[in-house]
Amino acid sequence: FLVGSPRRWGEPWKGRIHSMKGPQGYALIINVAMNIILGVLITVCFDFTLQAMIGVQFVTPALVAGTVISSFCVGFTAGTLVPAMPWGMKLAGLLKVKPGGLGMHVCCSVMLGLCMGVCITIGNFLIADLGTSGLAGALSDIAVGLPIIVAYAIVLVLIFLKPVQALAAKISGFDPAKAA
């Protein structure tokens, strides 16, 4: 997050830390907030769904905390590298959806939820399983978890994306709807 030339001895740090303002701040705030929300809620929902499916109590605070942290790291990286929102806008364009309307929100949310759900599922199960169950165990868990986690991700993005975008616009001072 440090920008500009290196600080000279005695110089203040003012202006050298990455700002939360403008388009970059807006995108960063959305990425962080959505990954916190998705990490916590998908972890809790999936862990309790799986616990109900297999009938064995295994959910502990430590398991939830570890999975949330892993999910955030995987999701933040995916959110930075995978252009899910532009893909959602392209999907909306292909479907001739009105910009800024409910259809645009649904297209972007479905694409974002799909991308994040897939990346988080694959990343988390590889991290959790490769050392203990090997690749076969990880692939098996991915196959079981993927449809459930993607469904949760899509629903959660549909619910939380708009409020997070509004919050990001307030904090960053950037509103893409007004910039267009």
How would you summarize this macromolecular structure in one to three sentences?
The protein has 180 residues and is mainly α. 76% of the residues lie in helices and 0% in strands. 26% of the residues are buried.
N/C terminus separation: 27 Å
The helix-strand sequence is HHHHHH
Mean pLDDT: 87
Q: What would the principal axes of the Cα set say about the shape?
A: globular
- Detail the poorly predicted runs: 1-5
Structural class: mainly alpha
Q: Approximately how much beta-strand content do the residues carry? A: under 5%
- Radius of gyration from the alpha-carbon trace, in angstroms: 19 Å
Helix content: over 70%
Give the helix tally: 6
Largest sheet: none
What structural keywords apply?
single chain; about 180 residues; 6 helices; globular; mainly alpha; disordered N terminus; about 0% strand
Walk me through the topology:
Blueprint lengths: L21 H33 L6 H21 L2 H11 L7 H28 L4 H39 L3 H4 L1
Task: Provide structural commentary.
The chain has 180 residues and is mainly alpha-helical. The chain is 76% helix and 0% strand. The chain is built from six helices and no strands. It has helices at 22-54, 61-81, 84-94, 102-129, 134-172, 176-179. Helix 2 crosses helix 4 (102-129) and helix 3 (84-94) crosses helix 4. The two termini are 27 Å apart. The model is unreliable at 1-5 (pLDDT under 50).
